[in-house]
Amino acid sequence: QVQLVESGGGLVQTGGSLRLSCASSGSIFSINVMGWYRQAPGKQRELVATITSGGSINLVDSVKGRFTISRDNTKNTVFLQMNSLKPEDTAVYYCYADVSLSFSRRTYQYWGQGTQVTVSS
Questions:
Q1: pLDDT, average across residues 59-64
Q2: CA distance 45 to 18
Q3: CA-CA distance, 18 to 11, in Å (whole number)?
């Protein structure tokens, strides 16, 4: 019922920029947290950035000063602006959302299919 679709990945040279988008759809009452995970070859999936419904932001140390997460609450969309990209940023980036589907306190977690980001040296 709820879907997350990522876009904006691609190939970029070191120092370049990309802007990832994640559009959510379905019967979402509210989005509590949206964020981005990434998984590089041979590595575990790691949390990159999150943003809460109140606008609180967390970034993993390795991307601080380079990445920015933002959201458009009216469109249930989250963005990840990635600047000064490095080869070590190469990974599949997955959108994540923790949502409420009703007035209850229950929350549900959804994942996008991922979008490839490749940074060449």
A1: 98
A2: 20
A3: 9
pLDDT digits (tens, 9 = 90+) for 84-93: 999 999 999 9
Please state, in angstroms and rounded to a whole number, the distance separating the CA atoms of residues 31 and 53.
6
Residues 6+ apart with CB under 8 A from 93: 6, 9, 20, 36, 37, 38, 48, 80, 114, 115, 116, 117
Spatial distance between the Cα atoms of 60 and 55, rounded to a whole number of angstroms: 16
- 7: which DSSP letter? E
Query: How far lies 45's CA from each of 60, 71, 104, in Å?
Result: 12, 22, 30
**CA–CA distance from 10 to each of 35, 67, 82 (Å)?**
19, 16, 12
Reported in sequence order, the residue ranges of 8-86 that DSSP labels E, i.e. its strands, are 10-13, 18-25, 30-39, 46-52, 57-59, 67-72, 77-82
Query: What are the two backbone dihedrals, phi and then psi, of residue 84, each rounded to the nearest 5 degrees?
Result: 50, 50
